[in-house]
Amino acid sequence: MKVRKKLKRPSLASVYVHHIAWGIVSLALLAFSAMLWLNNQDIKQQSMSLEQQLASLQQPSCEARVTWKSNTTKLFTISSQASERSYRVHLPADFDANRYYPAVFYFPGRGGSSIDGDRSSGVNTLPVIAIYPEPTKGIGGFAWQGAPYSSPANDVQFVSDILDRVNGQLCIKRDQVYAMGMSNGGGLVSLLSCYLSDRFTAFGVVGAAFYYPASDCTPKHPRPFISVHGDNDSVVPYNGSFARKLPGIEQWSARRALDNGCSSRPFVVARGTETITTWQFCRDNATVQNIRIHGGKHVWTADAPTVLWQFLSR
Q1: The CATH number of the domain where 131 resides is what?
Q2: Which domain holds residue 233?
Q3: Is residue 59 part of a domain?
Q4: Please, are residues 208 and 231 in contact by the beta-carbon 8 Å criterion?
Q5: pLDDT tens-place string over residues 80-112
Q6: Could you tell me if residue 181 is inside a domain?
Q7: CA–CA separation, 6 and 223 (whole Å)
Q8: Residues ≥6 apart with Cβ < 8 Å to 146
Q9: Is residue 23 included in any domain, yes or no?
Q10: Entry pTM
Q11: Contacts 24+ apart (CB under 8 A), 234-237
């Protein structure tokens, strides 16, 4: 008769060591996976940077067909949708007819004009060709498409027509075309980000009025978007207005981050009077950022062009 050997029960100490070992292995695998993912993101960013460099190399040598004195502005007219409209173009201080430049479109708020943008927005201080389209008159003054008080004009098409014209006259870096807007102008920028995302590189707004249903759109291509908004804004409330069909700014930004395929967990940083919320790891590096100005009002501040430009041009 065979005697069965009694199985030895492992000691608690050996079980404890076993679990620790597996824990270390799991953490190592997790760290390795994270490292591979981060390396992949770096490769993607380097690839995009290389694509931009190749695109710039492939651009033909340039000689602007229309030029005027650097650091000055010129008025143009254009036919758009069977209507004559106008816009202003400002050349940078270092303008050279044989060089390519980034371009920035600026859209003022309700009641503002292209002259106001040219004289007071501060966009002319940036190293860009600045373009100031003229809005049409809606209810109570100048306004842009998408607002309940705007005219029936198709401003998205108007901007596309301007871009066609400017590309034929000046040396514009086609992979560096940006849009900035204030208030109602910011609302138009949101429409451009949806319907002209194949022609613009990135978008930035201050105190934007994202009126529904116009702003409830999805970009054809994900593009970086930054919104700066004061939480003491009495004109376009930070938390939105159901009666006026204005969404909360944070909710709108989160929705845009979702559209861009970003991580659902944003990175939040408090800095002085600002809370900066950034949605990262987006498709095509289309980062979305919301800057909440605590106590901030409905105003385009002196540093607004610089703040937006730092985000848009990176």
Answers
A1: 3.40.50.1820
A2: 73-312
A3: no
A4: no
A5: 999 999 999 999 999 999 999 999 999 999 999
A6: yes
A7: 68
A8: 155, 184, 187, 188, 190, 191, 211, 214, 215
A9: no
A10: 0.81
A11: 234/297, 234/298, 235/183, 235/207, 235/298, 236/183, 236/207, 236/208, 236/209, 236/298
